[in-house]
Prior knowledge:
Porin, two-stranded antiparallel sheet
Amino acid sequence: MQPGLAEQTADQARAEANNTAGVTTEWKGGLPAFYSPDGKYRFKMRGRIIAHTSSTFGSDYDARNITTTGMRALRIGIEGSAGPNFFYQFENDFADNVSDVGTAFVGWRDKVGDISYDVRFGNMFNDRSFEGSSGSDAPPFLERNVVATSIIPQRGFYGISLMPRVFWKSGHASLTLSGDYIDNRQVVSDSQTLMGRIHWNPVKTERTTLHLGAWGFDEQLAEGAGSLTRNTVIGGRFNGALRVSSGTLTGGTGTRGYGVEAGGYAGPFWVMGEAGKRNAELDAGRPDFVSEAWSLSSGYFLTGELPPYNAHLGTFAQPRVLRPVLDGGPGAIELLARYENIDYSGVPTAGEGWAATAGVNWYLDNVIRLQFNLIHWNAENRSGAYPTEDSGQTVSAGVGVTF
């Protein structure tokens, strides 16, 4: 018998003997879920560990040709439910060596005929754009596209929100009314954002899906919260010197944005296109600061898996690996390609840029994946430390564990 196995067997027997409460467990997604004997209560842990490294070369600026490492996510959380209607979720992220509350909400769900719905309240992730609505562990590339990262409310991806959602067989719709992020100052009224998104699958079979979507938001900025400065990732998240910048912008009063999504998959091949526009209002009669972005991406699973698409929410999801490495299989291997473009305009300091990315993902199982991206980027800033057109390459790699 292997060292420690006898102790493990004894612990298991003791736990079974002491389980007078009749609690049951189910191993799912890398961690156990616990259920009360009457089935009314459910509880499970959740989390993700995502580490990246990147190296940039070819830039005309030596300060951009750097090699860096970083944690994309160090997240731990819980989720659960009480009865068929009440549910909750909480997550905290320790990336960048900072404790930061992410998702934290309570909700109520029910069903009327073939239509289901839920209403959630708390600090929540935006339902905005295809990749912008996907969690950090879900998009196939190491960083979300520029539509998700630039056509966004000034408060970012999260906000204290009230969000009702409706689901039907071929799509969903959401409406979000939100204030500021959870740890924002509380000496003036919050900024206020009204946001909506809808997605529809006009074609949905076992191996083929067509996705269509649209979204928009209107944000009124709080008094004194007038900074509209943007610095958007274009060649890798962990090179802080490599961004497309708006230049310093103050005196903002609000933003409005909208976008569309179209794509789908047929067998192991998928494609997704997104485009969006954002107008940021400046005070003193100045013209709007305008952001326009679009992206086209695709992928192919050499090992035959279907693309990881969540038809319920219209987002990327975790893949279902057919032959995991731990079972003696090859895992899932996915080839990727993407082109994205971002254009800031309306102010003299506005920049623009584009990037073309090739990549490969190796999913060892449904929990662990390795990623590699090769990015050719071009950035033209008109202010700051790098105020000319510049181009180069970034090699990025990452490992992720999601449970």
